[in-house]
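# step 3/5: fold
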Amino acid sequence: MMRTAFSKIHARAGRVLALAAWLALAGTPARAADAPAVPAPAVPAPAPTASDSTRAVPAPPASRAIADPLNRRLTGSLKVRLVGTSENVVRSGPGDGFAIVGVFPKDAEFPVIAKSGEWYDIRLSDRESGWIHASLCRELDDLSGLEFRPNPKLYTRTGSFVLSGYGGAYAFDRKSNSLVLGGRVGYYVFDRVLAEAGASWTHVQRAPEVVESLFGLTLEAEDFQMLFYQMNVMWELLPGRQMVPFVGAGVGSSIMLGRSEPSINFGAGTKLFVSKRTAVRWEFRDYRFRTGSSSSNLKNNNIEFTIGSEILF
């Protein structure tokens, strides 16, 4: 009987365990990997329409826009209008010697980038600019703030011609003072080197006692005109600046009393440029030459102080 009861308990326990296992399996969801893959139905892409090609692309937010101060400057409101002939020449630099970058019709307007003297740097396109002369255009705005002012220490005068006139005092043999007038023409070979040629005139008047002290003779007073010319080389100590000190030397000739005497000279002075093309010049110069016949040849040491003006072109 005990064996029979044990068999019944064992059979009931087996059914309970089987039921629990079935319930556990029934409550577990199936894994995605166990399920068969079902392909999604193909959906055809919509055909492009004509409106898509003209649809405006939204602008990026203002917070993400990249600032471009140069572009704002180039596309500013400061403009010029071409007023020349039907063909206004625009060059690659501020001068007639630069290459031509374009020819534009009358009444065309361009924004201005900079100004240098009588030339305007104008914006031709997003990637191209050029220079046009002031005679070919008219300012539509006040462009005085765009004037290009180069560093005076870097300003070059090489290749410029110089025309000058001057007046001053001349001491013949340092014992007779007279008025001297003259002029010069020069050329800047380099920034420091100026070659020039000049001619001067003075009226020499010597009292009798001066002649007697020189020759030991009783002679009449001397009164004669003297013309002298020279070719000089100037060396500027501080080239390209507003105030330019210089030294120089040269050779020439003095014509007086029907004779021509070779001479040498040397001196120093200063130029003060009141503008890019005009200057005031003062200098001190010593002229040395001999006068008289071979038997009474005298060495003359003549001092000249002058002040004048110069024009560069």
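# step 4/5: annotate
The longest strand covers residues 222-236.
# step 5/5: archive (pending)
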